[in-house]
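Would you mind giving me a polypeptide sequence along with per-residue structure tokens?
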Amino acid sequence: MLAVRTHAAGEPLSLDELPIPEPTGDAVLVRVAGCGVCHTDLHLARTDRLRMVRPVTLGHEIAGWIHEVGPRAAPLLRRARLAIGDAVLVHGGWGCGACRECASGVEQRCERGTSPGFQRDGGYAEYVLVPHARHLVGIGDLDPVTAAPLADEGVTPFRAVQRAVPWLTPGARVLVIGYGGLGQFALQFLRHLPDLTVAVRDIDPDKVAAATEQGAHLALLGGDESLVSLGLAGPADVVFDFVGDDGSMAYAAANVAPGGLVSLVGEAGGRLSFGFGALPDEASLTTTAWGSLADLREVVRRARRGRLRWTVEPIPLRQAQAAHDRLAAGGVTSRLVLVPGD
């Protein structure tokens, strides 16, 4: 099978021919329909900042069809009402299944966990081997190529918003930094909550315009920093940082209210010195790690009911390097999804 791999940080992606994996035990082989291209993939390919093992097939936003199952996987699939040929999303938090985090339903926090495209071969390929049937979520009549981004672009901002609910009370002021794919989903989830005032900040004028069209109360172009408090009538009770570099984190810290929350989602390698004076008094700083399996099921449920809107641009798998280059250059408005075949 064809797989797109990274062998060394900063080197071009490699098109490799690999054997099709054979599922054993609890494993399931998924024939890939599409795999989303995420900014995290760029960081993985170009730097050594994130925890990963090379060489590895990239890709963690995976959708496809159940193709073959290991001998112990069949009853697990039946209990999940799934069968060979069904369309599924792959939940990427592959935990050990035995620790406290896994037992409480947050496998993505497992200290012994692995993930596709990080420590295990991912979805930039024609097939992906999923270690356990529990990591699959049926998507029903959703098109798997279109649905692929829900596995990260959809579920990660959903989890970030859900974890911020104690701060998102009626009348709360919210600032979203970065209006790429995750930021667009975040705005939709925020718009489902009552009586919030939401501002969006991005450095791309087209994305700023799109944020206004899609329901943001205030959209700011990078450089209009002094307008945040004016437009929101005060600092933000919650700041979601979907960029995660030094500049965006400093911007978040400067615009959060006392007692507020900064939720860091973007993994651009930024750092923020922490201590008294780094944030307003009693403000909290947290990260969001992907989403749980339950989170992904809820996102799929909302998508199937037509409550979410997103667009994708399918690209042949062989053009993965071109897709990375386009994403790095900016200006991409739809989620790029790599599709096996010519």
